[in-house]
Amino acid sequence: MLVTLKEILETAEGKGQAVGAFNCTGLESLMAVISAAEELNHPVIIQFAEGHGKLIDFDIMAPIMLSFAHKATVPVCVHFDHGESFDSCKKAIDAGFTGVMIDGSSLPYEENIALTAKVVEYAHEKGASVEAELGSMYASEVGAIEPGKNQELSTEDAYTDPDQAKEFTERTGVDALAVSFGTSHGVYLTKPVLDLDRVTLIKEKAGIPLVMHGGSGLTTSEFQTAIRNGIRKVNYYTYMIMEGGKAAADYVKQADDQGIYFFHDIMNAARDAMKKQVMEEIRVFALEK
């Protein structure tokens, strides 16, 4: 069943858990995520990131994702991830998405507030929910350079400030906030240094569900400590899609001994591997593992 981001996060808040939010860039990943959630009887968030439009067109994926959500036997939020503008978020809301993320984190603080508030006003009028971002998810190490900023980021620049998070939430009316406490998008080249106590402080100040981006590669203990401290949504894509790629490559290597293989079998192998990975992470986020 299709639900809003706010609804699904309120349920997670009540249980002290987090909901997995998995980016879907094709039918195989979408099938893997929905099947995993239904088998475990857990709610789930399926996402399409604006940047993934280079892989498959939004206009193709949007109706398919919404159809899967409506037919699912568990609550499903269809969420637009890392929206880059008001217009792109508006397009997702008008298409039927029940949650959008407006990413103004690379903008000056006041511009981020203004853009987020504009998206919130439109989304709430249409019955959708909004996630925003404060801090940098590209700076798990001090001195990292965030895309779009021609400068190095100090720890204080990169990590979300609890007092600022409170003001940001109050001035925008946002429903969820993606925060920086040491995680980073993509594949980690070095072990991230997490400030998990910062999550607790932000949650106490902001008072809304918090979101973790860039969690791939963290340990179960790190995930679950962050969740106990206030994370209610965990974005997960990189390691899921890597599992699919590995399974496809392994299938081809095995089948190549006979010199015969079919593309649909490669897709099925990738889908099954992604489903297994998603099921494992859903259990972790629900504090069941």
Q: What share of the residues does DSSP label as strand, in percent?
A: 5-15%
Q: What radius of gyration results from the CA coordinates?
A: 18 Å
Name of the CATH architecture: Alpha-Beta Barrel
Shape: globular
Total strand count, please? 8
Structure annotation, total helices: 11
- The share of residues in helices is 40-55%
- The average pLDDT score comes to 90
* Class derived from helix and strand content: alpha/beta
Order of helices and strands: HEHEHEHEHEHHEHEHEHH
Q: CATH fold name, please? A: TIM Barrel
Instruction: Give the CATH level 1 class.
Output: Alpha Beta
Q: What strand line-up does the widest sheet have?
A: 1-2-3-4-5-6-7-8
Q: Catalogue the unreliable spans.
A: 139-154
For the report, how would you describe the main beta sheet? 8 strands, parallel, barrel
Brief characterization of the structure:
The protein has 289 residues and is of the alpha/beta class. Helix content is 49%, strand content 15%. Strands 1-2-3-4-5-6-7-8 form an 8-stranded parallel beta barrel, surrounded by 10 helices.
Your description of this structure?
Helix 4 (86-95) runs parallel beside helix 5 (109-125) and helix 7 runs parallel beside helix 8 (196-206). The model is unreliable at 139-154 (pLDDT under 50). The chain has helices at 5-15, 27-40, 58-71, 86-95, 109-125, 155-158, 162-172, 196-206, 220-228, 238-255, 263-285; strands at 19-23, 44-49, 76-83, 99-102, 129-134, 176-179, 210-212, 231-236. It contains eleven helices and eight strands. Helix 2 links the parallel strand 1 (19-23) and strand 2. It has an eight-stranded parallel barrel, surrounded by ten helices. With 289 residues, it is of the alpha/beta class. The radius of gyration is 18 Å and the shape is globular. It has a single domain, classed as TIM Barrel (Alpha-Beta Barrel). The two termini are 26 Å apart.
